[in-house]
Design a protein that fits this description.
Layout (H helix, E strand, L loop, with lengths): L3 H4 E2 L21 E3 L14 E6 L13 H9 L11 E7 L5 H17 L3 E6 L5 H9 L5 E6 L17 H7 L5 E9 L6 H9 L3 E4 H6 L5 H5 L3 E5 L21 H13 L5 E5 L10 H19 L15 E8 L4 E8 L5 E6 L5 E6 L1 H8 L5 H9 L3
Parallel strand pairs: 2-4, 3-4, 3-5, 5-10, 6-7, 6-9, 7-8, 9-10
Antiparallel strand pairs: 1-4, 11-12, 12-13, 13-14
C-alpha cells in the first residue's frame, strides 16, 4: 500500500487578509487539512478528498500549475457546507521528473483514494492529466462513462502525442481504456471540427452544444447522473466571467450556469471522480477565475452533501420509493418502462441489454411526457444503439 505523504506536499496557505465569516461558519470548519504538523496517511472515513496537481507540462496553458493554491485561497473563505460530510484536503501532488511520472503518481493516488471509498476531487493543472484519470478508472476492467464540460472538443483527427488539446484521443483509442461513453456538454459550434462531431455521433456519444444546454439546462442533470467522472474546463465559461485561461472565449456559460452544472455533478449517485482544469492565475484578473473555480467546487460539494443514493434500489419493483410507468411506443412496437422517485422526483428508463440484463438510464420528466405523446425519447434510442440493439 502506498503512503500518500510520499506523493503529496502538505497544504501551505497564508491566512486570509480579510475574514468575513466566523471560524465556526467557515469552510475550514468541516475539512481536515493535511499539513506538516498533522499529516494524513489515508482517506478512510472521508467522503471527499481534494488533490491539487500543480503541473502544466504538455500544455500551452503555462501558468496553470499555480491554480490549485489560488483556488484554495478563495475556497477557504467560503461558508461551511450543510450536514456532516467529512472532507480531506490532501495537498498538492509532487510533480514528477517527467510528465509521465506525474501521470503515474496521480493514478496511484487516485486508486488509493478510491479504494478507501472516497471521491477524489482534482484541482488542476490542465486537461493533459486526463490519461491518469482514464488509467485509474479503467484499472478495474469495468466500463466507465465521462461527462466533460468544455467550449471545445479536445480531439484531433491526426495522430500526435497526447496533450491538453487532444486528450480525448488518448482516452478513446488507448488499448487499455474502458471508457465506453462520453457526454460532451457545452461546446461552441465555431470552435468545433464538424468531422469530429460526426465521428462522436457515430459512436452514439452525447454531443450537446451550449445553445442546447442553455435552452434547457436541467436536461443535463441526467447526463451527470449516469457519469462515473465529471471534468470541467474553465474555458467553458465566457471570458467576462473567467478570463484566466489560455483560450478564453467571448461567449460561454455564465458563472451561475457553470456552478449549477457542477452542483448536478455533485448530486450524481454514480460519480466516482470530479476534476477542474485549465485555470491560469498568471492570466487572471484580480483572481476572478480562481474565485469562480472555487465557487464551482463549493457547489459541487454542496450538491454532494445533498445527494440521495437511489440507483442501487431501482431494480426492486416492490420498493415504495419508486413508481413505475409502462408506456407503449408505436414506432418501436414495444413498451418503455419509466421509473420515478417519489422522494427526489428524478426519472429513469429501464433498458435491457441483448442478454436480457436490466440497466437504468437516467432521464427527465420531459422524456416521459414525450413517450406519452408516442414519441421515442432520443436518450433511449441512443442508449439502445450503445447496447447493440
Amino acid at each position: 500500500m502506498i503512503d500518500l505523504n510520499h506523493y503529496l506536499d502538505p497544504v501551505c496557505l497564508d491566512k486570509p487578509s480579510i475574514e468575513h465569516l466566523s471560524l465556526t461558519a467557515g469552510f475550514s470548519h468541516n475539512i481536515f487539512v493535511n499539513t506538516g504538523n498533522k499529516p494524513l496517511t489515508d482517506t478512510c472515513g472521508f467522503s471527499i478528498a481534494l488533490i491539487g496537481v500543480p503541473d502544466d507540462r504538455r500544455s500551452a496553458n503555462q501558468g496553470a500549475a499555480l491554480a490549485p493554491d489560488a483556488i484554495r485561497e478563495s475556497l477557504y473563505t467560503f461558508s461551511r457546507l450543510p450536514g456532516r460530510m467529512k472532507i480531506a484536503d490532501l495537498g498538492n501532488l509532487k510533480p514528477g521528473n517527467s510528465f509521465e511520472d506525474t501521470l503515474a503518481g496521480l493514478r496511484d493516488v487516485l486508486l488509493k483514494v478510491l479504494d478507501a471509498d472516497t471521491i477524489p476531487v482534482i484541482i488542476g493543472g490542465t486537461s493533459a492529466l486526463m490519461p491518469a484519470i482514464d488509467k485509474c478508472l479503467s484499472a478495474s476492467k469495468r466500463p466507465w462513462s465521462l461527462a466533460s464540460v468544455d467550449s471545445r472538443l479536445d480531439f484531433t483527427p491526426e495522430k500526435r502525442d497526447a496533450d491538453s488539446f487532444n486528450w480525448i484521443n488518448d482516452v478513446v483509442y488507448r488499448s487499455g481504456s474502458r471508457m465506453t461513453h462520453l457526454s460532451a456538454i457545452g461546446h461552441q459550434t465555431y470552435l468545433a471540427d464538424q468531422q469530429v462531431v460526426n465521428r462522436f455521433n457515430r459512436r452514439h456519444y452525447n454531443i450537446i452544444r451550449i445553445g442546447e444546454v442553455r435552452a434547457a439546462i436541467h436536461e443535463t442533470e441526467p447526463l451527470f447522473r449516469d457519469a462515473d467522472a465529471a471534468v470541467f474546463d474553465i474555458g467553458a465559461v465566457r471570458q467576462s466571467d473567467a478570463p484566466g485561461t489560455i483560450l478564453p472565449s467571448a461567449n460561454g456559460f455564465y458563472g451561475e450556469e457553470i456552478c449549477l452544472l457542477a452542483r448536478y455533478a455533485g448530486l450524481s449517485d454514480n460519480l466516482k471522480l470530479f476534476g477542474l482544469f485549465e485555470v491560469n492565475p498568471a492570466l487572471d484578473n484580480r483572481g476572478q477565475s480562481s474565485q469562480l473555480a472555487a465557487q464551482m467546487l463549493w457547489f459541487f460539494l454542496e450538491g454532494f452533501s445533498q445527494k440521495q443514493y437511489e440507483v442501487t434500489s431501482l431494480a426492486d419493483q416492490q420498493n415504495p420509493r419508486f413508481t413505475r410507468y409502462h408506456v407503449t411506443l408505436t414506432d418501436l412496437g414495444s413498451e418503455a418502462i419509466f421509473i420515478k422517485s417519489n422522494h427526489t422526483e428524478r426519472w429513469w428508463i429501464e433498458i435491457k441489454d441483448p442478454k436480457g440484463e436490466p440497466h437504468f438510464l437516467a432521464c427527465s420528466n420531459e422524456d416521459y411526457l414525450k413517450a406519452n405523446r408516442d414519441q421515442v425519447p432520443e436518450r433511449w434510442t441512443s442508449a439502445l444503439l450503445r447496447f447493440g440493439h
